[in-house]
Amino acid sequence: MNLLGNLSRLITFNARPIALTQVHKSHIHLSSTLFAYEKQQGSNKWVEHNKTIFPPQTPDETPRPAYVCHVNKYFKYSPEKMWYIAILVRGMSVDEAVRQLSFVDKKGSDFAKETILEAQKMAVERHNVEYKTNLWVAESFVGKGKAIKGVRRHARRRFGEVEYKYCHYYVRLEEGTPPVDYYNKSVTPSQQLEKYMKQMRCRKVPNTL
Q: What pairs with residue 164 in β-bridges?
């Protein structure tokens, strides 16, 4: 009995280093997989526009205005509510956009104002924009982030589903003065119909000749 007891202790004692050695020698690396997953999300593609290198211009060409793209990702707010704030500042100068967002009594206005001010700072420090007030909001839109589902308790042992939504706010500031008519309201209804019909006729059924 003593021999069997000592043998069982020896096997148990020697089994631990073997298990630890197997864990330490594991060749499973998740860094490349996580990087590929993050790359598929497309959240960093918007910022990659800042690295675009344009060819030099001739003296007779119109100077190309500088621009900067910025994004505020994964903040807790509904993308449906943020959409109204994003379209509010389109076509405004930076000062006017910040001024208008200061009077909007919404939680998302703080996120939008913070993103615009960060993009303005980036334009001056990294993209050689001389005057920080000489910028206007060329693009402003919202992207849907993750939605975490939870459970809310109700009476009589019932449960309801609740979603905690996250979103991304994208903005592009461009150097110069804002346009007089950002949405091009001078287009007549007949011209809009003609443009729509042209788009419909240019459609193509996939996997056909």
A: 148
Using left for φ > 0, alpha for ψ between -120 and 50, and beta otherwise, residue 132 falls in: alpha
Contact predicate 144/99, CB 8 Å? no
For 158-180, how does the pLDDT look when each residue is reduced to its tens digit (9 = 90+)?
Answer: 999 999 999 999 999 999 999 98
Phi, psi (5° rounding) for residue 174? -125, 145
Distance CA 66, CA 61 (A): 15
The reported pLDDT for the residue numbered 122 is: 96
Record the pTM.
0.70
Q: What is the DSSP string of 96-150?
A: HHHHHHHT--SHHHHHHHHHHHHHHHHHHHHS--S-TTSEEEEEEEEEEEEEEEE
What does the block give as tokens for 68? Answer: 């900067």
Report CA torsion sign: 34, 40, 43, 49: positive
Give the integer Cα–Cα distance in Å for 79 and 89: 16
**Residue from 125, 143, 24, 134 nearest 82 by CA:** 143
Of 149, 152, 139, which is closest to residue 69 (Cα–Cα)?
A: 139
Nearest to 144 by CA among 86, 183, 92: 86
Paired sense of beta strands 67-75 and 159-175, if any: antiparallel
Sequence letter at residue 92: M
Question: Contact 167/143 with Cβ under 8 angstroms?
Answer: yes
Ramachandran angles phi, psi of 81, nearest 5°: -75, -35
